[in-house]
Amino acid sequence: MAGGSEPEAHDTNVSRTERTELSGRTLRKLERASGGLATASITAMEDRLTWFSRLPADQRSNILLVTQTGVSNFVSWLQDPSESIRLTAEAFRAAPRDLSRWISLRQTLEMVRTAIDVFEQQLPDLAEDERERILLTESILRYTREIAFAAATSYAAAAEARGAWDARLEALVVDGIVRGDTEESLLSRAAALGWEPSSEATVMVGSAPSDDPPTIVYQVRSRAARAGRSVLLVVQGSRLVVVFGEASDGRAVRDPASTIAEAFEEGPVVVGPTVPSLAEAHRSAEDAMSGLRAVVAWPEAPRPVASEDLLPERALAGDPEAERLLVETIVSPLNEAGGTLLETLDTYLEVGGVLESCARKLYVHPNTVRYRLRRISEVTGRSPSNPRGAHTLRVALGVGRLARSRGVG
């Protein structure tokens, strides 16, 4: 560190010695010409940069203000080079706060390059002799380098500020979804973040992989980009909540949830149902949160696991929505399909899934039981011969009986 700082100090001292050799007459010429240099720079920008002439008058006047400050600071810098860093930064501090919103960094550098050309053309003519012309040319290069770095720093600071604001806005949106807000303000905030409100939305929840929010954001967004999905996310303590949308570029991604789940900490990750729009995302969030609370009852659950696959555990945990879904998707369809299916299922489960024992108890042929079991799978989407399907069907039957005993359904 110490060795690296000595050349800088030596360079500054040499620069100070050289610049003080500018004659007082040259410095006075520079001061008188500063206004004309700024105006000439703006004129050159209008001539060379097609986008510049399309700017509103107030924005062009703000750029003139920045240019005038830069020229004035250049003259002051020649007189006192130790003030260079402060003075170049002041050129951008004099600009309106929203300058970086309507002029990009690329456009700013184009303006700086144009101003440099004007300086290089006009400043040498103000020197008294060849030595001063060389000195002015070198000074232009040094000063404009500082201007370029100051511009990059200014835009970087603005980008960081916008990023921090976007992160807060994103947290408000996802928190609102988790709380169940359906206000119009939630949709407008999401739209400000570039989310299409009419896009499908799916909520997934799990544990956050680290205590460093920027790292989490990078991991989630990189995997979402790989899956071709836009995302909104928030870290709530040790919990990570991610909302992802539909494929925006038409790429067919078979299982985006599995790709995004790689960004979560080890442990269960629950995916809520896909809903038609962000306004309904609270339903997906409710199911996902309910599943995350109940997934501990299914140690062998896949990762990620759909909240719909956790209906038995959610019902056992007292989730009324899960109870309703079990009745609507299993019990009611079986009732509508005829009493023989419900009776066969009940008997089959009671005899431990032994087909022959079920047939004897029902006084029917085993092939009849096979046929009815296939019908049960078609009607409910759950196979009684599969251990997980049998568990779901058994819990559904119990929930249905409890509902009838309470006079519900």
Broad shape: rod-shaped
* Range of strand content: 5-15%
Helix and strand sequence: HHHHHHHHEHEEHEHEHHHHHH
Low-confidence stretches: 1-20
**CATH architecture annotation of the largest domain:** Orthogonal Bundle
CATH topology of the largest domain: Globin-like
Separate helix tally: 17
Q: How many domains in all?
A: 3
CATH class designation of the largest domain = Mainly Alpha
How far do the termini sit from each other? 78 Å
Sheet with most strands: strand arrangement? 2-3-1-4-5
Arithmetic mean pLDDT = 81
Strand count: 5
Largest sheet: number of strands, sense, barrel closure = 5 strands, mixed
Estimated structural class? alpha+beta
Percentage of residues in helical conformation: 55-70%
Radius of gyration, CA atoms, in whole angstroms:
35 Å
GO molecular function: DNA binding
Region (Disordered): 1-23
Domain PucR C-terminal helix-turn-helix: 341-397
Organism: Actinopolyspora righensis
Explained architecture:
The protein is of the alpha+beta class and 409 residues long. It has three domains: 2-161, Globin-like, CATH 1.10.490; 185-310, Alpha-Beta Plaits (2-Layer Sandwich); 319-405, Orthogonal Bundle (Arc Repressor Mutant, subunit A). It is 66% helix and 7% strand. It contains 17 helices and five strands. A five-stranded mixed sheet has the order 2-3-1-4-5, with helices on both faces. The chain is rod-shaped, with a radius of gyration of 35 Å. Residues 1-20 have low confidence and may be disordered. Belongs to the CdaR family. Keywords: DNA-binding. GO terms for molecular function: DNA binding. Residues 341-397 form the PucR C-terminal helix-turn-helix domain.
